[in-house]
Specification:
five-stranded parallel beta sheet; 27 strands; binds 5'-O-[(R)-(benzoyloxy)(hydroxy)phosphoryl]adenosine; GMP Synthetase, Chain A, domain 3; single chain
Amino acid sequence: MSGADLLEGCTPWPEEFAERYRALGYWAGVGLYQRLAQVVAEHGERVAVVCGERRWSYAQFDEKIRRFAAGLARLGIGPRDRVVLQLPNLGEYYVACYALFRIGALPVFALPAHRRSEIAYFVEHTQARACVIADREAGFDYRELMREVRASQDCLREVIVVGDAQEFHAFDSLYDAPIDRPGPDAGEIAFLQLSGGSTGVPKLIPRSHDDYLYSVRASAEICGLDERCVYLCALPCAHNFPMSSPGALGVFEVGGRVVLARQAEPDFCFGLIAAERVTLTSLVPSLALAWLESRARERHDLSSLQTIQIGGAHLANEVARRVPGAFGCRLQQVFGMAEGLVNYTRDDDAEELVLATQGRPISADDEIRIVDDDDCPVAEGETGHLLTRGPYTIRGYYRAEAHNARAFTVDGFYRTGDRVRRLASGHLIVEGRAKDQVNRGGEKIAAEEVESHLLAHPAVFDAALVAMPDRWLGEKSCAFVVLREPAPSPRELQRFLRERGIAAFKIPDRIEPVERLPRTAVGKIDKKLLRARFLAPSADASGPTHSLIAETLS
Ligand code: OOB
């Protein structure tokens, strides 16, 4: 399809790039559902999904997808309609995804942790027609959330609920008789993924069938997957890492089995690994650490594990070193982003590369530039800002023209916001980050988003959110606030944020009132100085004391 036909609000690849990616076979012209249908034809009897007591063969999985797609069509959901998908790790997640892919409607991947403010924004920004949710999970009632969102968003017509639907559509009631229909063109946008972001509102990432399927196929190949693979999905299934690096979609690509873990706790997951003979799983560093520290390891037979992938946040070298011995399997580091570029360490890499680098890109056509603050290339081996473009890295966020002008270079390179250095072998080492974000155990928090919620409080005059080191999560968030009288307590401010309906992981772990925020010479808040407070030798493990902060900042 030509760029001009693309979904409104999306930036196409320039035609000469698109032609090249097709000619090289990266973009195979096959849709995500179409590809699954090919696998079903070959592996129909094999188990595709294990979810609690339920086990679906590929043929059963496909039947559910085709029937659910028919039900969606009955509700009037058609090509290019947007549907917000907010489900915990349940088999229905993949049924809904592939059914939407089949009819050419676009899932918008929300996380179970999102609350009113985020979901209402996704619905409004994408003009979503429908949402798919679970009834309750972890003590939270998503139907209540939907009632609130629906009250403010007229575009949202249908709510589909896994479990007790109350006044909404029950997921199971949409299993209609399948109807044959042409699938979308593979050049179409398949879904909208969430960006970790660094701006006031979350950005959405439009990925096409062609580009995503290429990254999935190539990832499955790099990771050596075949139909014997049993993958444990312990991270939230909507995240790009467990979805496509190679994740569930990579496993479906080869006819393997996806085992969904409803919780990520070591004891629970170890039980599943033993029972299902899991061969592969992917973890963020904080979860890897929790699994390493757990005594439950000795109670379960984990001998089926071949590879543990770790990515999403900085992996400390000491932790990396413990993984192979503790689990009797390979470690693979993964450095990726929902915008595209994914790097893997490879099976045949020397041990030191696996332990101390974040891998090298999937594709020979992933272009990597490492530049200084003026966009000039740094000397080979030096640290700089990572820019990238390639066959599966987006050229622009969805409906974000002004932001795109900053987030991409004029020649289409994505500014990742990561600071990296490259070894002669092509392996990248992530040295830090320039973007204004907190990476809380792999969950990304855009500082500006939280700051603007804080500033909505009448007593908050100024606010700055920064990362503070944390032994378990890698980073936690600390908000420095300048308050007016009567000054609310940190606890009151946290409650205020919760009431504004934001995901719990975005609520600052610590709130420090200060008299004023330090500024740089050009008048910007000096976050480096704020962060440095936590690195000072006098700061104890729980962070600086109030007086220490007040002393240096006032
Ligand atoms: C993955 O995707 P996102 O979109 O949630 O976050 C991307 C950002 C990167 O730009 C980088 O800042 C950070 O997360 N990151 C890492 C890392 N992997 C991701 N930082 C240090 N070391 C790593 N290994 O997080 C994601 C997507 C696909 C595969 C894996 C991770």
